[in-house]
From TrEMBL:
Pathway: Isoprenoid biosynthesis; isopentenyl diphosphate biosynthesis via DXP pathway; isopentenyl diphosphate from 1-deoxy-D-xylulose 5-phosphate: step 1/6. It comes from the Bacteria. Catalyzes the NADPH-dependent rearrangement and reduction of 1-deoxy-D-xylulose-5-phosphate (DXP) to 2-C-methyl-D-erythritol 4-phosphate (MEP). This is 1-deoxy-D-xylulose 5-phosphate reductoisomerase. The lineage of its organism: Bacteria, Pseudomonadati, Pseudomonadota, Betaproteobacteria, Burkholderiales. Its EC number is 1.1.1.267. Its cofactor is Mg(2+); Mn(2+). 1-deoxy-D-xylulose 5-phosphate binds at residues 127, 153-154, 178, 201, 214, 219-220, 223. One of its GO terms (biological process) is isopentenyl diphosphate biosynthetic process, methylerythritol 4-phosphate pathway involved in terpenoid biosynthetic process. It holds the Pfam family DXP_redisom_C. Mn(2+) binds at residues 152, 154, 223. GO terms for molecular function: 1-deoxy-D-xylulose-5-phosphate reductoisomerase activity; isomerase activity; manganese ion binding; NADPH binding. The gene is dxr. It comes from Basilea psittacipulmonis DSM 24701. It catalyses: 2-C-methyl-D-erythritol 4-phosphate + NADP(+) = 1-deoxy-D-xylulose 5-phosphate + NADPH + H(+).
Length: 392
């Protein structure tokens, strides 16, 4: 029986993780659940899974939780912690075996590092741990003997196809991308794109920020950076292919020309169940994939003129860890500004390129601590705000 902490329980990864855990009560016990402000959903989850600890983002959220518990006196009130200190406390709790790191953004960084320092089994869905602090995070994992398992579907697919004993015979990693809503949109028309259009993904429904990242392929760029750190390959060994059907989730090619692919439904319960049970496999609650209905698999190279953000992610990776951090911070600021209809869609890539060029002049050193990571993130966000003001 593994005691599991879910950091970010009310998001998509957290909800899917609980769906899998619910089917395997003999294998997993939910020890702690966390949410920033969605106390209503957190309480509903707690009623079902009866965690020992809950973590919320503020004292007001604690009062909301207590009100919910007062309405259900038959329930035992768990220990309730607050803020980053609470997240770090549960992530390194000696009773915990597995930490699902599903908090989005820089806000999830401290707690993931706490889990790594404590030598936990980490199911990683927080991109920033590797994008903003790749070398530093991996050193922390290696020093403690923590286990790092990717949950993102593309990296999990590669992990499933990658034979560690044959890593030296690896030729390339191939990350697949749907191409998003503008795959067939002429470049000249992108200046008129609205946030509503950018958030209309052809294959699935996601949050607004990640939907825009999928449209620009900045998200795929972040995944390239993650793959570089996760699998210890050269930048030139990581390729991206457009695959609109989203059936093949990623591939590994070996020196003999063999290509291994992981394919199936685009359902996050598959990578989550694999990571939870690794090295075994358990039911993910996903139905059998009907291969007889599969009529087409198409692949093509990305157009870097249209998907400039993907090219810029490769550029940031060439420059080093601090520049990957800069890419992420600038992109986040610019996407939010676009969603608020304050800049045009092409300005996202233009802004990232301008900020990276500015950072080259700064000659950023590799981060030696989490404070360095936070300092670079803050500096880039401030520079991006200035660039946005000048661009409007």
């Amino acid at each position: 029986m593994e005691n599991v902490v879910i950091l970010g329980a009310t998001g998509s990864i957290g909800k899917n993780t609980l769906n899998v855990i619910a089917s395997h009560p003999d294998k997993f016990k939910v020890y702690a659940l966390t949410a920033h402000r969605n106390t209503k959903m957190l309480f509903e989850q707690a009623k079902v899974f009866l965690p020992n600890v809950l973590v919320v983002g503020s004292k007001d959220a604690v009062q909301e939780l207590n009100t919910y518990y007062e309405s259900c006196p038959e329930l035992t009130v768990p220990k309730i912690l607050v803020g980053q200190e609470g997240l770090c406390e549960v992530a390194q709790d000696s009773a915990v075996d597995t930490v699902v790191a599903a908090i989005v953004g820089i806000a999830g960084l401290s707690s993931v590092f706490s889990a790594a320092k404590a030598g936990k089994k980490i199911l990683l869905a927080n991109k920033e741990s590797l994008v903003a602090a790749g070398d530093l995070f991996l050193k922390t994992v290696q020093a403690s003997g923590a286990t790092l398992l990717p949950v993102d579907s593309e990296h999990n697919a590669i992990f499933q196809c990658l034979n560690q004993n044959q890593a030296k015979m690896l030729r390339r990693l191939i990350l697949t991308a749907s191409g998003g809503p503008f795959l067939n949109t002429p470049l000249a028309e992108l200046a008129q794109v609205t946030p509503e259009q950018a958030c209309k993904h052809p294959n699935w429904s996601m949050g607004r920020k990640i939907s825009v990242d999928s449209a620009t392929m900045a998200n795929k760029g972040l995944e390239v950076i993650e793959a570089y750190y996760l699998f210890g390959v050269q930048r030139e060994q990581i390729e991206v292919l457009i695959h609109p059907q989203s059936v093949v989730h990623s591939m590994v090619e070996y020196a003999d020309g063999s290509i291994l692919a992981q394919m199936g439904y685009a359902d996050m319960r598959i990578p989550i169940s694999y990571a939870l049970a690794y090295p075994d496999r358990i039911s993910s609650n996903v139905p059998t994939f009907n291969l007889s209905q599969l009529t087409e698999l198409r692949f093509s190279l990305p157009d870097y003129d249209k998907f400039t953000c993907l090219k810029l992610a490769y550029d940031a990776l060439s420059l080093g860890s601090a520049y990957c951090n800069a890419f992420n911070a600038a992109n986040e600021m610019l996407v939010n500004t676009f969603l608020n209809k304050e800049i045009s869609y092409p300005r996202i890539a233009q802004g990232i390129e301008a900020i990276l060029n500015d950072m080259v002049a700064e000659n950023l050193p590799a981060p030696q601590s989490l404070d360095d990571v936070y300092d670079t993130d803050l500096m880039v966000r401030e520079k991006t705000i200035l660039w946005i003001r000048n661009a409007q």
